[in-house]
Amino acid sequence: MLLTPALIYGVSWSFAQAAGSFDPVAREITDETRLRGGVALMAAVGLVAGVVVVSRWASPLLSLVPALTLIGWSVYFFVAPDRALALPSELPPQGPLDATVDSGLRMLLGTGVFALLGFVLLVPAGAPRRWAGRHPGEDPGGHADYADYDEEPTSGRRQPEFF
């Protein structure tokens, strides 16, 4: 449950910071520190999202909940754009970063980036391997436990699976 707001607010704040730190018309960076901070946080959020997408040990709900939230909000944007764009100002956290996060949320929602991120997170949740429980003799990393065999096989070793 914590992953959804962390992804949404992390992407929104970093987008707003990065977008506000350069002038695309003049092709110059106006605030290098702000740009680096925004890009660094965006990279960290991308790393977390990537781990969620490829990790076999994670529950499929780990990616399904944020995926459905982002896709649902994007669909809501097409049904009632004014109401969907007003929603960020009604959600916590309220504070000094509120205006920055709100503008980032609205830009990412309106440009379809949240829909893109939602579908990226939805795909691994649909993989049947993610919903299957662990099999006996398999460790959390997905490798076979060779202690159950008389001898370790010399060929045909199982390759690690991501899904």
Concise overview:
The protein is mostly helical and 163 residues long. It is built from seven helices and two strands. Strands 1-2 form a two-stranded antiparallel sheet.
How are the SSEs ordered, and which strands pair?
Layout: H1 3-19, E1 22-23, E2 28-29, H2 32-54, H3 60-79, H4 81-90, H5 98-111, H6 113-125, H7 128-131
Helix pairs in contact: 1-2, 1-3, 1-5, 2-6, 3-4, 3-6
Structure description:
This protein is 62% helix and 2% strand. The chain contains seven helices and two strands, in the order H-E-E-H-H-H-H-H-H. It has helices spanning 3-19, 32-54, 60-79, 81-90, 98-111, 113-125, 128-131; strands at residues 22-23, 28-29. A two-stranded antiparallel sheet has the order 1-2. Strand 1 and strand 2 (28-29) form a beta hairpin. The longest helix has 23 residues, at 32-54. The radius of gyration is 20 Å and the shape is globular.
Q: How would you describe this structure in keywords?
A:
163 residues, two-stranded antiparallel ribbon, 7 helices
